[in-house]
Amino acid sequence: MTRQSIDAAKEHKGNLHDVAWLLEDEAHGPAPSKPTTYGDITELNAERTILDSVGREMLQMLSEDIMALLDTSVAVYEKNGDYAFGSFVSEWCSFMDNASRELCNTSDNREALECGNWLCHENWGHIRQYRPGP
Question: What share of the chain is helix, strand, coil (3-state, %, to 5)?
């Protein structure tokens, strides 16, 4: 074996090691979503175009792989800004969302969404208001 072929073999082994986690995650399945302390805010959805067309189960299935890969949260919004789906996998996202929600000092989700202190949802609200120009 030449030095060049040994180096190439080491490089390939390193490359395989770098992507091994992809196969492991598939074997274990997606991480389960973390429950929220405040319930399901999609119940406040008045638009329902995405939620009724795609369905909660399909939105969950599509979101699970993304969340497992990124270790984050997912929110799907209707055209009017209502929540069609939301789910947490990341411990820190879940913690921050629940802590942020408590700042609103209300048990009513509609009031909390309007209170201006539910910081996790306020930040997403600013992002979803962005509309790229023509």
Answer: 60, 10, 30
DSSP state of 41: G
Global confidence as pTM:
0.49
| Residues 49-106: tens digit of each pLDDT | 999 998 988 888 887 777 767 777 788 888 888 888 888 777 777 788 888 889 999 9
Sign of the dihedral defined by the CA atoms of residues 119, 87, 36, 42, in that order: positive
Please count the other Cβ atoms lying within 10 Å of the Cβ belonging to residue 109. 21
| Spacing of C-alpha 20 from chain mean position | 23
Phi-psi region of 29 (alpha: psi -120 to 50; beta: other; left: phi over 0): left
Six token digits for residue 74? 């997912």
